[in-house]
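FIELD: query
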Amino acid sequence: MVDAYLAASAQAGALVDEGLLECFQVVLEALDPTLRSIAARRAGLGGEPLTLQELGDEFGVSRERIRQLESRLCEQLARQPWTVEARRRIDAAVARGPVPFATLASDRWWAAASERPSAVAFIVESVLGHDVSVIELDDAPWLARQKATAITAAFGELVSAAGRIQLPGPLEVFEALATQAATAFGPHVAAYFRDELRGRLQLDDGP
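FIELD: result
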């Protein structure tokens, strides 16, 4: 059992460059079958992620017991060497602000993980205990340090500011407003604001 655990941990270290999800799946193999099942089901590997209560009902134990087991497995995974590189790459991904998973997908390290937002959320929030989380904007997953509510509130203020512009007006004025409103959130949110605002404007071919 110990030899298998050490071998899997070494393999995970070698695989960390292959991708976040790939490495996570390897380290799960070293867990006790019960812990492995809890981690996989909570992360949504192979289906929708289950709640603590749903898992408790399935295993015939209390929600609190599942929570304790999850805490134990997350502590076990967080102590492994692969987490150092994972944290570095996650920090790099959000260095300029929130980033949509659609953008992350172009990076090979994120490619498989970007198709499993629930797994990324479990790894980042539960295993790593990172200050980064998975949020949703218009039903699309993003990786961010900021809350979705802060971004949507800023967009609401942008819409109000745009409503005070005398019409007709040049598109550049509205795009500048969108860029300014996203100052605290970075370039990806700025692009998102501009696109969302354009969708609310009636555009013509004039100046």
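FIELD: remark
The chain has a mean pLDDT of 90.
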